[in-house]
Each structure stands twice: as structure tokens, then as C-alpha cells.
Amino acid sequence: MNILKGVNFVASEYLEHKLSLLPDLPGCYLMKDINGKIIYVGKAKNLKNRVRSYFKSSHEGKTARLVSEIADFEYIIVSSDKEAFLLEITLIQKHRPYFNIKLKQGNNGYPYIKITNERDPQIKIVNSLLKDGGYYFGPYPNVYAAEETVNFLQKVYPLRRCNGFQNRPCLYYHMGQCLGACFKVVPEEKYAKQIKRIKSFLNGNVAHAKQMLTARMEKAADNMEYERAAEIRDLIKYIEITVEKQKIISNDNTPRDIFNYYMDKGWLSIQVFFIRQSRLMKREKRLFPIIDDPEEEMVSFISQFYKQKNQILPKEILVPKSLPADVISHVVEDVPVRTPQRGQKRDLLEMAGKNAQLVLEEKFRLLELDESKTTGAMKELTDAMGIAPGHKIEAFDHSHIQGADLVSAMVVFVDGQPNKNLYRKYKLKTVDHADEAASTKEVIRRRYSRLLKEHAEMPDLILMDGGTIQMNAVKDVLVNELDLHIPVGGMVKNEHHQTADLLFGDADTPLKLDPKSQGFYLLQRIQDEVHRFAITYHRKVHTKNSLSSRLDAITGVGPKTRNKLLRKFGSLKRISAASLDDIRSLGISETTAQTIKFSLSKIEEERKVTNYQDKKLTH
């Protein structure tokens, strides 16, 4: 019986021969598609048993999709299971295969409050943790609340707000928000006393501060200073959100991270709890369709998690007993990894597991609701075009107004869903806006020459919002200039400017997609989305250029002054609302500042008159 179900006969013989040569040793294996691209990396204690298991039994979900695309594989043997795991992580990070779990790089997006480690310390908001001796508090999910809390602390428990010694008191010193490092030596004991108060406050001891603010709020209300009272009320709320809202959940201040998971129907749901200052400060949730056992995927996830940029290690990591604590500890720079047996830590671990289960159950309900719109849509398109199954589509559209501000936009759909993190915008240099071929060639050349240079993943299909001209231009650049062979299609519209069909190949005849099919629905969404994205970007560019033109028309405003105003204020309305002092602070003379204010006020009056006349005409 042929064990390679669903693989063509020639490939079957080839793979069967390779499978028979697999060793009974630990190592890593790399699955490849028909184009030789690595689509999955895995590890095994026994390479022969593990790799053969993909082909000798039936699979569902993501694993079934993987097996259907495997055309070849290779392997690397190692001396132990631990070495296999470490090699697997390296290979995943190098190749970023489609079917492996991939984590986004970058910081976690939540700010910290930091007291700097300096002779004259400051308190500030930062986006990442550094091993620099400073005191860090957080992370705080509500950025604005954290900023308001820091503003409050700078007023009540001031440290240093100036840039340091300047031989004269700074403005903040006169406002009582700086201890005076700008003109004198501040005793270290004075800083230490303030830092002790700040640390106590950020650790949850806010009762005194709230009493003080409540008294001020009531006094402002009694004096009918209602706006001031509302500001203080909001500040109390921000303090509660930032500091007081999280309840004490442990009896020590050990920074620890808690990982737990729930697995069902080929999906892995992960919950990460971050315990800081004895509080649950933040949690992250992740969902992945998986190939391997959930335990192996969890170990891979945790190791990648801590290799992300700016991801500072905790003092302790808690995991369920099904995970190999010793392996995780070895990979995560020997941080202690434990499984709690009782008490608050065990309760938190179980709570993370329950949350993981709830998130996954919600995911399944949403999938059921959306299934009719997305399931099989990508495959329907590739089948209609007669090309190999794929996952990633990149679509392009151009936009301009009478030749002005020519732009192009690209959207990306992965497995029938838009991935907005991958969208790109282009200001085109093509002079003739009517030359669709030239515009198309420019954006295609810029996009895919860059992907080649970066050794980045190519799409499985390229779609152009247009017909034969655009398609031929794309193929000319891809094949003749870049030696790339990616399928290209053209999205055509009817006389009502609605999605009509898809062009593919050398013929001018559309593929005649069924308007009620999932594939047609996907094509429609892609065309609408790329058009929306292109138009939105064009309006932004055109508005900015129009704003620049209006500023250039004002006497005394040159390119440098215009750029200063745009960077500082961003719009005519904000420039018009700014005071003369605000404008002069940019190094603009008083005469020019007055001219700007007068000119913009006239523009605003004209705009109001125009709007009024338009309303009268409308009614």
C-alpha cells in the first residue's frame, strides 16, 4: 500500500526512497514545497518514526494542509533531544516557515514608569526595560493613565525635570516640579526620600494621595471651578487604573511570568500572565493552528517569546507540569522554571489555563460565523487559475487626481484574510500618470527587488486592479528583470465599477468565476480593500500637499518655515489656533508670525462662508 496519499506517483517513489533511509536518531527535519521553499521545521527524538508519521496516517486541519504541500524534505541529525530543540529554534528563526508558529518582533506595546539611575534622577515613561540600574514599574496597559500618573508624581514628589545644571533655576523649579539640579547640588538623601515615596505610591499605597486630591476636587466644586474639579476627578481615575486597580495576588515582589495553554481541534490557545509588584499587571493571549504536540509547540513558543527585542526576563517562570521545566530553563538563560503544587501560584496557573480555554472556544464560535465567507476561497481561486495551492496574495492599485500626487498601494491577504501589518504605500515617481504600464512597472520593481534583497517571503499570487496592460507590465518586470515566476492576475470591473471577474494567463477572456462562490467573494473583498487603501493614502498625500501650497502662498513663509509649522502643528486649523508665542517659538519672527495668523484667519473665514453657502444650496 502506498503510504504517500495525495502525492503524485513520481514524487511518491522519490519520497518513499528517502523515508527508507531515515535514521533512528534525534534531529531536525525541514519540509519543502514543490518550489523548494521550506514550509515547516520540526524536531524528533527519532527522525524515522516522526517523519514517516506525516505520510502513513490521516490528518486534519493544519497538519493535513502541510502534508498536501510537502514535495521534499531534508534532515539534520544531532546527539540529543535538547540539541534538536535548540537547532529547531535556530532554523525557525532563520527560515520563518509558513506552518510554524511565528511571533511578531518588537516590544510588547505597553509602557513602564522608570526612575533613572543617575546622580540627579528623573521619573519618566519608557517603552522597554533595560539593565541599567533604574527602578521600573509596570507594564501599564493604559498609556494615557500612566502618563497622567507620572505628571501627578512630578508635581507631588518632584525629582529632576530639567536637563541638568545650567547655572539658573528652570521653569519647573519655579513651579515646584524640580528639586533644583539646574542651579545647585541637591542632597542625595533628599532624592532618596522622594524615591521612597514614589515607590510606595506605585506599589499601591495611594490612600493619602487620593484623600488629598478628593479634598482639592471638592474645594474646586464648591468654588464653582467645575472644569478644574473634573480634571482632578479624572486624575483620581487614572491613578486607580494605573496603580490601585490591580489587586494584590501574592505575598512577595518577585517578577514572574505564568504560561498555560489549552488545545482543541488542532488549535493551541496560550495565556501569559505577567506578575509585577505582586499584581497581575498584564496578560497576553495567542492562538495558533499547530502541527506538533502542544507541549512541543509550547516550549518553542516560550523560547521564541523571550528572544523578542526588549523582552526582559522575569525572576521566575511558572508552567504546567506537562512541560519540560529543565529544557525551558536552559533555553531561557537559566531562569528558574517551576510548576506550583499549591497556593496562590497554582491558582494563577489554573486561571491562565481556564482563560486559554475560553479564548479558544470563542475563536471556534467566530470561525463558524465567518466560515461561509472564507473557507476554501483561496483554493477556489488557485483552482480556477490552474496553479498550485497558495496562502498569500499581494494586490496593487494606483490613485491620482488629474495626474497630481500619483501613488500606489498594496494590500496583503493570507488565507483569505487581510493582514494589515503587511500593507505598503508608495509615492510614484512616474511622470506620465496616464502611463499605467510605467506606474505598474515602477511599483512592482520597487516591491520585489526589495524582497529579493532582503531574502523575504514572496507571495503565491499577485493581483492588479486592472486588465491586460497592468498584468503584462507586472510579468515583464518579474520575468525579464527579476527572474521571478509568480502567477499574476487582473481584477476587472463592470460598467458599474463593481468586481466582475478575473483575468489570468495570456488570454483576454475572463475566467467566468461564479459570482456566488467563495472565490469570487474573496476577489471582491481584495479589490475593494486595495482600492480603499489606495484612495485613503492618496487623499492624505493630496491634503498634505494642498496644505503646503496654502502655506507657501503666505508672504514670508518659505520651505523651511512651512516644514517647521507642519511638523509642529500638522494642520491649518491647529496653526490658526496657535498663539503668536507658539509660532515664534519655532524661530519665526514676530512680523511673519502675525502675517501667518492673519492669512490663516482669512482662509478660515472663507472656508466658513463656503460651507454656509453649500448648506444653503443643499437646502
Automatic annotation (TrEMBL):
Residues 207-242 form the UVR domain. Its main location: cytoplasm. Residues 24-101 form the GIY-YIG domain. InterPro entries: GIY-YIG_endonuc, GIY-YIG_endonuc_sf, GIY-YIG_UvrC_Cho, RuvA_2-like, UVR_dom, UVR_dom_sf, UvrABC_protein_C, UvrC. Keywords: Cytoplasm, DNA damage, DNA excision, DNA repair, Excision nuclease, SOS response. It comes from the Bacteria. It is found in: Cytoplasm. The keyword Transmembrane does not apply. The keyword DNA damage applies. Gene3D superfamilies: 5' to 3' exonuclease, C-terminal subdomain (1.10.150.20), GIY-YIG endonuclease (3.40.1440.10), UVR domain (4.10.860.10), UvrC, RNAse H endonuclease domain (3.30.420.340). SMART domains: GIYc. Residues 258-478 form the UvrC family homology region profile domain. The UvrABC repair system catalyzes the recognition and processing of DNA lesions. UvrC both incises the 5' and 3' sides of the lesion. The N-terminal half is responsible for the 3' incision and the C-terminal half is responsible for the 5' incision. HAMAP family: UvrC. Interacts with UvrB in an incision complex. Belongs to the UvrC family. This is UvrABC system protein C. The gene is uvrC.
